[in-house]
Amino acid sequence: MALADECKELNLESVIGFNGEVPGGLQYTSCGGYVFYPLGSIIVVRNISTGKQAFLEAHTDSVSCICASKDNKYLASGQESYGTTKADVMVWDLQQTIKNCDEGVPSAGGCLIHRLKQHIGKVQAVDFSCDAKYLLTLGGQDDNDLVVWDVEGGYGICGSPAAKDSALCAKWLNNRNDRLVTSGNFHLKVWQVDINAPRIHAMDAKMGSMQRVMQCISITADDEYAYCGTKTGEVLQFRIDRDPIQSYNDPDRIRPTMMGYTRERMSRGVKSVACVVNPSTGNTNVLAGGDGSITFINPKLNIITGKSAKVSGSVTSLSISPSGMGFYAGTSLSQRYYIDFKTFNAELRGTCHYGEIYDVKFPRGCSDLFITASSQDIRVWNCRLRQELLRIQVPNLTCNTIDMTPSGGAIVSGWSDGKIRAFYPESGKLKFVIGEAHLANVEAADGCTALCVCNDDDLSPPWRIISGGGDGRVRIWKVTNSHQSMLHSMKEHRGRVNSIVCNRDGTQAVSASADGSCIVWDTEKGLRINALFEPTIFRHVLFHPDESQYLTCGSNFKISYWDSYDGSAIRVIDGGEAEMTSLDITADGDKFASGSGDKTVKVWSYDDGLVLGIGQGHSGAIQKVAFSPDESTIVSVGTEGGIFIWGLP
């Protein structure tokens, strides 16, 4: 891969997405004006009033935990890693990040303070002490170590195995920097930290015969009690006072003890809890999030009637507003809600895909909108406002591919059940269905795997759709106002068809397959004109705008140029360090963009084959890239469910 002399970083202008699976992933800053949350390998800090964003980019894999200090000075995050690789903990300058956000320079940098390496496989939890002097980090299942760090110096002070079984969460007390609490599989421990020694000492809580997996924890403002949510749906209450570190022969006089638990269980477990002080009574109530519901629990561990909210997905984050007027809730389906304490009505503040995104398309000649395809739905987005405008849902199915008619009158989509569905873009209502267009194999997400709409005038039917499937067939369909019929069915591919593109006048189409071939078709006769062969799994094919060449990419990490006259290879360039998954080209053919399994977006000079710009931010393989029609931005989508909007250099 050759870089141009003036190769630049692509400017990440905005992202649409939120990893709702991260416990406690959606949080307020202590000033109350911003929220922060993970998306793949980056952290997004968002101004609540203006909607401006800033991005923290240094992690090499998915962010697994996140927290901010109470003085609004630091932000810490941990990540996952593979095998025995050490998982990084990052300490960030939150004030500089907020400044970047307000000044409209989201990727300006200058925010990373420390990169801490200790845990293997995964960082399970991070938390700052009340005075932000110390940071605790908890390793995942393969590590399970608890470490206390000096925040200013960036060095480890002391540590210990967290428990005999897996520890899942950890919190400092709210008013002292020498005591913290961890909980997990069948245990809760209160730790005393002696910085001067240095050493750390754990004391197990007395639980009697109670055996529960505790997956979240919250501590009252006076540090008297801790509340834990369990996998079986209860909320447990613990008194967490304990003796300081004593000599070996001295008996324990004060031990942490379980005081009670809720009698009513929440479905599928409690994944998030938060303590709330009632200003009128001074009592501490508890918010608990279960599967699709948030309930209020009083100090006697009874559910308060009339104080509950319904949301979409399991509640994984609860963050109380510093003003005390309401709270944010994040769910496993990547929805972000704001709930007011008075009304307890859930207001949807942010939405995005919660699974892998398979395709993205701009309507022809329109840069303000784009469409994405994912599991169970198609969504239409406003590119300028970064807002969802329309959601088209088809339960229990996966949309593999999408396209739009030239006039924008229909969204045409291919699904894992083998059907082609067309929808009205204004209402999302079904326009027509072509049943059994391709063989369905739901487990392999096959069905209709690629399609394109010919450049026919769809306002004056008939017009045509060309589709490809996991069965290797390429089919051409005629669409009229009253019916849809198959014109041609071609079976020459021996593997899944991954991409189809049509020329300007609709007389030719090229299909790219996993069998290592690209076939050029005569769409009028349904016959093969030419074929391109390479020892690779072809993932994408496109025409150069003047139709003199084809451009392909695939699993051999290469991008290939082909002569459209005789199908001969003209040039092969190295695309990156992993499988090349997607291509798109500008209208004048001067530049093209690529996405790949190495998680990078690249902009290339077509004639020189040199990289002009590189964008990094995805934590999973990039599935598709698309230029906006005005060529000011690139939209990329990936396996982590994020939508990244890049500015061209």
Architecture blueprint of SSEs:
Blueprint: E1 3-9, E2 11-16, E3 27-28, E4 34-39, E5 42-47, E6 53-57, E7 63-68, E8 74-79, E9 86-93, H1 94-102, E10 112-120, E11 123-128, E12 134-139, E13 145-150, E14 155-161, E15 167-172, E16 179-184, E17 187-194, E18 199-204, E19 214-219, E20 225-230, E21 235-239, E22 257-261, E23 272-277, E24 284-289, E25 291-297, E26 303-320, E27 326-331, E28 336-340, E29 346-350, E30 357-361, E31 369-382, E32 387-404, E33 411-415, E34 420-423, E35 430-434, E36 448-453, E37 463-469, E38 473-479, E39 484-491, E40 497-502, E41 508-513, E42 517-522, E43 527-533, E44 538-543, E45 549-554, E46 558-563, E47 569-574, E48 580-585, E49 591-596, E50 600-605, E51 611-616, E52 622-627, E53 633-638, E54 643-647
Parallel strand pairs: 1-51
Antiparallel strand pairs: 2-54, 3-4, 4-5, 5-6, 7-8, 8-9, 9-10, 11-12, 12-13, 13-14, 15-16, 16-17, 17-18, 19-20, 20-21, 21-22, 23-24, 24-25, 25-26, 26-27, 27-28, 28-29, 30-31, 31-32, 32-33, 33-34, 34-35, 36-37, 37-38, 38-39, 40-41, 41-42, 42-43, 44-45, 45-46, 46-47, 48-49, 49-50, 50-51, 52-53, ...
Describe the protein.
The chain has 649 residues and is an all-beta fold. It contains one helix and 54 strands. The protein has a seven-stranded antiparallel sheet, with no helix packed on it. The protein has a six-stranded antiparallel sheet with strand order 30-31-32-33-34-35, with no helix packed on it. The protein has a five-stranded mixed sheet with strand order 1-51-50-49-48, with no helix packed on it. The longest helix is centred in the first third of the chain and has 9 residues, at 94-102. 49% of the residues are buried.
